[in-house]
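User: Structure please.
Assistant: Input sequence and predicted structure:
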Amino acid sequence: MDTYSSTRAGMSRTPVFCGIVPPHILDKLARSEDPAISAAARRTLVSDAAQRTGRRLTTVVGATAPTVEAPAGEPRRTIHDAEHGTTLPGTQVRDEGEDPGQDATVNRAYAGLGATFELLMSAYGRDSIDGAGLPLVATVHYDENYGNAFWNGEQMVFGDGDGEIFLDFTVPIDVIGHELAHGVTQYTANLTYFGQPGALNESVSDVLGSLVKQYVLNQTADQADWLIGAGLLAPRVTGVALRSMKEPGSAYDDDVLGKDPQPGTMEDYVRTGRDNGGVHINSGIPNHAFYLLATQLGGKAWERAGQIWYDVLTGGTLEVDASFTDFARATVAAAAARYGEGAEHEAVLKAWQQVGVPAN
């Protein structure tokens, strides 16, 4: 994902590119001795690079404004088919309110957009990702053997995977929620995509993505698996998901993918210049803090725990370059403001303490 400079005054909302699959995974796959795997990964990397270039150009010419407005409080979804090309958005194949068709990928994308909209509206009173009824646009069947899904600042895009490492990217509903959550961050805290603020950006998307899945399944925090991308990895892969919020570093350990590098505490914080300063790696730390908070509070995670995170994201006080400590302290303040200095406040303090991030 690439993001661009912003100012607090006016909060410039510049388009971004952000994919669910971390670049360190694609880089490793591109070096595979299996040509079926390496070719697909290299094609994905080339396509992603082109998207990043396109986003930079958009900052010069300006983003395209939505042409269709949604009724207040109701989703306005359109699904397009790229037919294995790269022209966006592609051919429209399903509009809001239309019945499901024969293409399961189209149907899953439509349902995932709706579930994310519903969680934001019902739990937090937010009308779409921008809070003002932004239409939700998605494109499926993007490129050939494309191993990623992304939010490009304007719409969602899903690849079909290569069938060797990745399956269809519409299968895990939390992938859809994760990418749309980047849009929520774009329109709210607008966190810089580098180092700790970048890891927070990724973590917020994992949190909201997981909450979408739990909301759809009507799960309590204790019932949830806290995996991001479960069902995405092909049968040949030794792993269960892309990331684990419950146990960062345990999502996969595979001969081709390697070992999940995520730390769960500051003791194992990874300092690297790759992946925009390790944004997909160190996001495991705030991810784990949220998991600890949600399971300590119990019940539905999108309620108290999710509300605290949402309050911080949308409160207008979080700087674009916020560190883990800045975010932690903001969650402590948000918990006290909404719930008083009781169980929620103490649980937030304890969660951050357990991952080694100062919060007071």
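Confidence is low (pLDDT under 50) at residues 1-12, 55-66.
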